[in-house]
Design brief:
Elements (H helix, E strand, L loop, with lengths): L1 E8 L4 H10 L5 E6 L6 H8 L2 E4 L8 H15 L3 E8 L2 E3 L3 H11 L3 E10 L6 H9 L5 E3 L6 E4 H6 L11 H11 L3 E12 L6 H22 L8 H25 L9 H12 L4 H13 L1 H17 L19
Parallel strand pairs: 1-2, 1-4, 2-3, 6-9
Antiparallel strand pairs: 4-8, 5-9, 6-8, 7-9
Length: 332
């Protein structure tokens, strides 16, 4: 069966080189979809042997649009296309993953999408990179969703009409909701799938990424929040309660009772301790994760507010980017 790869990216620098070199020569065809890079990414991709699609930047850019464009080009080039591996340009596929994923889909005709273990390349460098690695350390087995790096059946993807191109975040789990609604299963394997290079070094980057997550939660509720799916309802409520409702209640209590009103603030460290004790990694990693889960409620609440504001005023959302372009001139 024919397996194609869609790589999407924008100013990924040396990360794109590693990404393309991990799939070229292994897949039937590799399509790189570029979204307005200025660092020579297009030239690099062509030089390495990938087919390039320049995304029309006169329309709002989303990763969903880029992936759909790549799928369309693969479909045109490979009439017998069976499976498509989507990869972000800041990821490097593990050796042997394409074969393992394709063989697994061959053996499980009821599964539409499969993913594996995604790891952060340098979790030891910053707390923010570590948080990414912890976030992706989830059990193998049947899942509700995969992330942006996953292999999907071409016919299932086409029948579902691909990703929603207007979503600026959360497009992967939203597609999985629709696939499961059509009777397909989503599966996560224990096999190593890819290395991700978040390269997050500043608190501001983590904050923007968390705002984007909150925006995605709100969008998920808007699209699929009704029963029985109730997509992202729990995450959205949690952000609104911890990030808005409780702080507003505390401010009200302070206005009424003075400094005694600050006593409910103790609920935050208590919740951090609770989450820390429930962690399944090292004590340090568990505590870091717990602390940032609670800190993340505030930017997630901001993302919720942004989504609702855009819905009320009818304003189109723009991509919430947290990554910094890699140093120019490295794509030689």
């Amino acid at each position: 069966m024919s397996v194609g790869v869609v790589v999407i990216g924008r100013n990924e620098g040396e990360r794109l080189r590693r990404c393309l070199e991990s799939v070229l020569g292994v897949a039937g065809r590799v399509v790189y979809v570029d979204s307005g890079s200025t660092d020579g990414s297009v030239e690099l991709a062509r030089r390495l042997g990938a087919e390039v699609v320049d995304l029309d930047m006169s329309m709002p850019f989303t990763a969903a649009r880029a992936r759909n464009a790549g799928f369309q080009r693969l479909s045109e080039r490979l009439p017998d296309l069976a499976y498509v591996q989507f990869v972000d340009g800041d990821c490097e596929l593990a050796a042997g993953w394409l074969e393992k994923a394709a063989d697994w889909l061959d053996a499980h005709p009821g599964v539409a999408m499969v993913c594996g273990r995604l790891r952060e390349r340098h979790p030891e460098r910053t707390i923010y990179n570590l948080l990414c690695d912890i976030e992706w350390d989830v059990p193998a087995g049947e899942a509700k969703a995969c992330g942006g790096v996953a292999m999907v059946r071409a016919d299932a993807f086409e029948n579902a009409r691909g990703y929603r191109p207007d979503l600026i975040a959360g497009e992967e789990p939203e597609l999985c909701v629709r696939l499961r609604g059509q009777g397909w299963k989503i599966w996560r394997l224990a096999n190593e799938m890819a290395l991700h290079d978040a390269a997050m070094t500043r608190f501001g980057q983590w904050w923007k990424r968390s705002v984007r997550a909150g925006y995605a939660f709100a969008g998920g509720v808007f699209l699929h929040g009704a029963a029985p799916e109730r997509h992202r309802v729990r995450e959205s409520r949690s952000a609104l309660v911890w990030g808005i409702a409780i702080p507003m209640s505390i401010l009200t209590a302070v206005a009424l009772w003075g400094s005694w009103g600050f006593l409910p603030l103790a609920i935050y460290p208590l919740q951090i301790v609770r989450l820390c004790l429930r962690g399944k990694r090292s004590p340090r990693e568990n505590c870091v994760r717990a602390l940032f889960i609670m800190l993340g409620k505030f930017p997630e609440a901001v993302g919720q507010i942004k989504f609702r504001y855009h819905r009320i005023v009818g304003e189109k959302a723009h991509l919430i980017e947290y990554k910094q372009p890699q140093e120019q001139g490295r794509n030689r």
